[in-house]
Backbone:
C-alpha cells in the first residue's frame, strides 16, 4: 500500500513577543465571548420571564372569567317531564 506523506511548511520557533501577543489576543477574544454570552443569556432569561408573566396573567384572567360566570348562574335552564306513579304501567 502506498504511503502518503504530508510535506508541510516547517514552522520556525516563535519569538517571545509573538507568543505574548497571541496570549493577549486569545484572552481578549475569551473576554469578549464571555461578556457577549452573558448578554445573550440575560436576554433569553428576560424573554422567558416576560413569557411566564404573560402566561400567568392569561391564566388568571381565564380563571376569573370562569369563576365570574359560575357565580352569575343563579338559575339552571332545563327541560323536564313530570312522571306520575300511575303513568309507569302505561309504557
Residues:
Amino acid at each position: 500500500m502506498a504511503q502518503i506523506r504530508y510535506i508541510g511548511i516547517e514552522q520556525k520557533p516563535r519569538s517571545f513577543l509573538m507568543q505574548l501577543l497571541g496570549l493577549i489576543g486569545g484572552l481578549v477574544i475569551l473576554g469578549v465571548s464571555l461578556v457577549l454570552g452573558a448578554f445573550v443569556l440575560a436576554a433569553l432569561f428576560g424573554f422567558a420571564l416576560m413569557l411566564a408573566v404573560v402566561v400567568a396573567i392569561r391564566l388568571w384572567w381565564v380563571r376569573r372569567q370562569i369563576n365570574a360566570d359560575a357565580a352569575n348562574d343563579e338559575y339552571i335552564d332545563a327541560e323536564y317531564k313530570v312522571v306520575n306513579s300511575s303513568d309507569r304501567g302505561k309504557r
About this structure: Residues 31 and 37 are 10 Å apart (CA to CA). Residues 44-71 form one domain. The longest helix spans residues 16-72. The helical segments are 16-72.
